[in-house]
Give the backbone structure.
Amino acid sequence: VTRLPIVLALAAGLSSGCGDATTPTSPSTPADAVAATTRLFTGTLAAGDTQFYSFTVPQDSGVFLTLASVTAPGERAAGDRPIRLGLGVPRGTGCAVATEIVTGPALTAQIREWTRKGVHCAAVADPGTLTTSVAFAVRIGYFQ
Amino acid sequence: MSRVQRLTFALALVAGAACGSSPTSPTDAADDRLVTPARETFSGIIVSGTTSRVFAARTTGLAVARLSGITPAAALGIGLGIPRDSGSCLLARSTTSADGLDAEVSAAVELGTFCVQVFAPPTSTTEVRYTVTLEYP
């Protein structure tokens, strides 16, 4: 579920509203409609730690990273500690981050980048402020 | 106005201008379908642990979850987050009611799937009734 299919569907719906009113047609699926997929990158981040998650984008696409949750392990309440969130490509045994921010949890994407198809990685890291471990969750979205 | 709304509006204008000789403005009914928030109310009983409910936001906006009717008085938590396959809810925002008083949590959301979670202290042994009112775009 993405914005793009909605916009494409609306465009198709609006354009199909033109023309001969006596010959209604069934809604059609735009040939270039795309579907979104999401993946969840979760783990526990210790002070001074870095973690990353690799994923394959099957076509040139927008990629959306949402740091959605940062909590103390075992806690039910949401935390608000900021951590470093990045998007890049795997290099060697790590993730070469091209875009990064230090952010707290939110339910809207903090990183939105247009990427080429291929393998990319999402990374989280201690920005230098963690004194204890935190559990994190990053939602990764892209089109396929 | 969000990018989707702006683009949709522009598409509506283009489509309207392309049809016939008397273009008209987009109708209020169509606009209402885009912006009217959804509203859900549900009740339950919790002892300890958590209970979650998934909802799908159709556009960008503010999601608000209100916790009320807590009986008997207890300190329950309510939060908003993203769901995981196991059915649990990974919370981005949460708050805890003050011993039976109503509580409210809100967060900006965008098109996608989210969840609201009610949670009780893990050591609680009392059945507590509650009602959640959820609004989302």
